[in-house]
Every structure is written in C-alpha cells, then in structure tokens.
Design goal:
single chain; alpha+beta
Length: about 100
Amino acid sequence: MATGPLPPPLPDGNEFPEERELLALLEGAGFALGGTGEADLADSPADWLERADAVDEEVERRHGDRPEFAQARENARRVGRLISGGALRPWLGIGVAR
C-alpha cells in the first residue's frame, strides 16, 4: 500500500491506494479484515527462491524478446524502487467475506 503520494515513474497499469482508501475499497466490496501485518519480503525459503528463479529463467527464455516482457521487468524495477524508498509498504490483510 502507498504511504503517501508516489514519486514517478510509476509502474504502468498498477494502482497503490493509501491505507484509508484501501480499507474503504475492501469494505465496499463486502470484506472485513480478520488481521493485518507487514509482509517480510526477505523471508522466503531457499528452495522457493530457487524455483522462482527457474520460472523466471524459463519465462525469459520463452518471451525475453517481447516488448511486454521488457515492460514487465521495468514495472518490477519501479515497484522495487518504491518499496525500497518507503513509498510503498508490503502489507498483508486477511479478508473475510461478510
């Protein structure tokens, strides 16, 4: 979720609401929050990271010459910059349908 106004360049096709807006969106969609917390993005097991790397390599092998692949990589860099700069915070919420 956004911690405030996001500095450009932003990832294309993505929206990151601030907490108040996100909570209103969830409520408007009929969800209550059963719990929330900060996501630890550096807490993945080594075997999961190895599998994710293998998938990334295969996707690049199959689609690395496509402009959509380049755009997806650029979007990932932009999100990473926003997270590392504190403009986005990794947030987890348990949504419970009402």
